[in-house]
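Tokens for chain A. Residues wanted.
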């Protein structure tokens, strides 16, 4: 079987189980000739158990207009806000603390994000997650 040539790789963040062919899906996939409704059905079926979260997806589009997609873990800021029970981070980072997360929550988020982070071990992943929390005005500990 001949290899299919990749024409594009599209990355978008969508609500799990609730994607629609309207923007951003339609505007991202339409120019490549992909059937947006087919993608939406497959994405919603794959993410129906994660409703309420934002799930990034990487869509590989081939020359014959077929596609495959890979689901990623939710964005780190979303996980941190959920753990802290906040709607938003701090307005003035560095001067204002929006909330706190425990060390256990930090470890939990780091373990969840490990497949998508470029970290060699859990300590490096924890450092990346802690840095994101700090930049959001959320204290760890």
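Reply:
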């Amino acid at each position: 079987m001949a290899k299919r040539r990749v024409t594009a790789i599209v990355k978008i963040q969508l609500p799990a189980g609730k994607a629609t062919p309207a923007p951003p899906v339609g505007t991202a996939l339409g120019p490549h000739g992909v059937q947006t409704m087919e993608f939406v059905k497959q994405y919603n079926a794959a993410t129906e158990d994660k409703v309420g979260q934002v799930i990034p997806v990487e869509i590989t589009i081939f020359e014959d207009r077929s596609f495959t997609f890979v689901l990623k873990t939710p964005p780190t800021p979303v996980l941190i806000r959920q753990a802290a029970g906040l709607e938003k981070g701090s307005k003035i980072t560095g001067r204002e603390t929006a909330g706190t997360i425990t060390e256990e929550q930090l470890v939990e988020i780091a373990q969840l994000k490990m497949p998508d982070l470029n970290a060699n071990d859990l300590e490096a992943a924890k450092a990346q997650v802690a840095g994101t929390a700090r930049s959001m005005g959320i204290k760890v500990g």
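DSSP finds five helices and five strands in the chain. The CA atoms of residues 63 and 112 lie 34 Å apart.
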